[in-house]
Write a structure and sequence with these properties.
It contains one helix and 28 strands. It is mainly beta and about 350 residues long. It has a single domain, classed as YVTN repeat-like/Quinoprotein amine dehydrogenase (Methylamine Dehydrogenase, Chain H). The chain has a four-stranded antiparallel sheet. A four-stranded antiparallel sheet has the order 4-5-6-7, covered by helices on one side.
Length: about 350
């Protein structure tokens, strides 16, 4: 049974009270768009919850050291943050957030599994699949009990991000230090195969049907597509400075690719690999990205500007920004509207 720390919960209570009692920040940015964003802020070790329509910060909550990624349940009730840590201080916790309640509910200690990073909710929203870079594995964690139910070891260096097919059975990791992607059976905790891809694969995602694995190479600036049936690797796009993340639109017709060093967002046609357009973010440092379930809007964290861009995908226009904390990275969106308690 993982150990649970009370310190993050005490800190959460203090900050949540301050956030609720203090003045609302931000201003109306996208009044026609409703919903809530949850964003991790790496340097201050916090997560910001924002009302999209007004741009108001609803709460700023404490996390573990070095929060990177965040996911939100399908009903918008629960968000989970991976506390990756810093260079000298490896993280080992998940921070669980009650989104409507604007509070941290628990910290799940994964030790001895260190450096949790990539995370995906599994069907049913009671379990998450999360990488442990240090353990070279993907853990299946129960949010109810805080227990690690299964450990699927890749035995590859730098298993940093994870993509999971819609059925929740098959997962793929980008193994930065081994230059591979590894397929895992999450139901049994078994590694099935590893496939060589271009050097330093980090960004990764899997189509809902599990047929394609898209992966970005930090060293070559290339985005590749792995055919899951045959293991064949093809180049989809090149010339990236750092293809930071891969995100599919809900209808799987387009692929959104933030380029951190290139300071832009590229949009590709998934079937043909043709480029549909680019959105520049000079000085922005684009990193994490999320999309609304209807596929009409995307939300891109700009790590160098302490804000999130709201993008209308039909014409690839930035229609607003919301202010968040310093060095924002992971971002999650729910259509659920959250309000401050009166």
């Amino acid at each position: 049974m993982p150990r649970r720390s009370l310190r993050p919960l005490l800190r959460a209570t203090v900050l949540a009270v301050l956030a609720v009692a203090g003045p609302m920040s931000g201003r109306a940015q996208v009044p026609a768009l409703r919903g809530t964003l949850i964003i991790t802020n790496k340097a201050p070790y916090t997560a910001t919850i924002v009302d999209v329509a007004s741009g108001a910060t609803l709460a700023t909550l404490p996390t573990g050291v070095g929060p990177h990624e965040v996911v939100v349940s399908s009903d918008g009730a629960t968000a989970v943050v991976t506390d990756y840590g810093t260079g000298p201080q490896p993280g080992s916790t998940l921070t669980v957030i009650d989104v409507p309640g604007l509070r941290v509910t628990r910290s799940i200690n994964l030790a001895p599994a260190l450096r949790p990073h990539g995370i995906v909710f599994l069907p049913g929203d009671s379990l998450v699949a999360v990488t442990s870079e240090q353990l070279r594995a993907v853990l299946v964690v129960s949010l109810r009990s805080g227990e690690v139910l299964r450990t699927a070891r890749t035995d590859k260096a730098g298993s940093h991000m994870v993509g999971v097919a819609a059925d929740g059975r098959r997962a793929w990791t980008g193994d930065i230090g081994s230059n591979t992607v590894t397929e895992l059976d999450l139901s049994t905790g078994t590694a099935l195969r590893s496939i060589a891809v271009p050097t330093q694969p980090e960004a990764i995602n899997v189509t809902a049907d599990g047929a394609q694995v898209w992966v970005g190479s930090n060293a070559t600036g290339r985005v590749s597509v792995v055919d899951a049936a045959t293991g064949t690797v093809r180049t989809a796009a090149e010339g990236f400075g750092w293809p930071y993340r891969v995100l599919f639109t809900p209808d799987a017709s387009q692929v959104l690719l933030p380029d951190y060093r290139g300071e832009e967002l590229r949009v590709l046609d998934r079937a043909t690999f043709a480029e549909r357009g680019r959105i520049p973010f000079p000085g922005g440092g684009p990193q994490g990205i999320a999309i609304a379930p209807d596929g009409q809007h995307a939300f891109l964290s700009l790590s160098a500007q302490s804000r999130v861009a709201v993008i209308r995908l039909a014409d690839r226009q930035v229609i607003g920004h919301v202010s968040v904390g310093e060095t924002p990275d992971g971002v999650a969106y729910t259509p659920r509207v959250v309000t401050r308690p009166r």
